[in-house]
Amino acid sequence: MDGNGRWAAQHGLERFEGHIRGVESVRRAIQAATRHGVRYLTLYAFSTENWGRPAAEVDALMELFCKSVINETPELAAQGVRVRIIGDKSRFPEKVKHHLDQIENRTATGKRLTLQLALNYSSRSEIVHAMQGLARRAAAGIFSPEEISEQTVSEALYTAGCPDPDLLIRTSGEQRLSNFLMWQLAYTEFYFTPVPWPDFTKEELMKAVEAYNHRDRRYGGLKEE
Ligand code: FPP
């Protein structure tokens, strides 16, 4: 969800205003996903690198996460959305952790859409964390190194149980992964758009889906007749 800061600058606003507008795009994307039968949606909201931003912006984002989570939980629960946080929650202030735990608990029975919020997320850290878990189990004698497979690694990631994404969308012109779901995106189709996240409407989402529908996914094989 890139480009909130640039959108704000273009409109003569503070960066934080861009993040506030970004929440509206989040709401639109979730609504469109539920209406169109998308079963899994993952939003990259805060990376481990984002702690390096000015304290005022980080604090404002923490407040915005809490406020959004409190405001949106009833509607998400009513819509059958299950929220799952992926990333290392332990670094968040207690208040933020509390609200993140609450939204996970209160939406735990949702069956329509699994919404993964990547918060304090880094793909490399996720893989290291998974490896440490497997190594600990091996050291305790309950797992043998031969059991390390693509499946057991996938099951040790934060995204365990969630299928690999079909489509990755990055807004605001940047064409890189920035430490996002590197294991999971091995065969994903990428869509890059210059549109900044606050301007990412349902129509823009449909354009991305339309582009995806014209892709020819071969997974390294040959084109089917
Ligand atoms: C990247 O734009 C965006 C972020 C670091 C924050 C994204 C967060 C939201 C949209 C709020 C979502 C809230 C919930 C609860 C999911 P940027 O600041 O890097 O923009 P720039 O590259 O133009 O500076």
The set of bound ligands, ions and cofactors reads:
farnesyl diphosphate
Number of helices: 7
Kindly state the number of beta strands: 5
Q: Rg to the nearest angstrom?
A: 18 Å
Helix content: 40-55%
Order of helices and strands: HHEHEHEHHEEH
The end-to-end distance, rounded to whole angstroms, is 37 Å
Q: Assess the beta-strand content as a share of residues.
A: 5-15%
What does this structure look like?
45% of the residues lie in helices and 14% in strands. It is an alpha/beta fold and 225 residues long. The strands form 2 sheets. It has a 3-stranded parallel sheet with strand order 1-3-2, with helices on both faces. Strands 4-5 form a two-stranded parallel sheet. Helix 4 links the parallel strand 2 (81-86) and strand 3. Helix 1 crosses helix 2 (15-35), helix 2 (15-35) packs parallel to helix 3 (55-78) and helix 3 runs parallel beside helix 4. The longest helix is centred in the N-terminal third of the chain and has 24 residues, at 55-78. It binds farnesyl diphosphate. Farnesyl diphosphate is lined by residues 1-6, 19, 22-23, 26, 43, 45-46, 50, 64-65, 68-69, 117, 172.
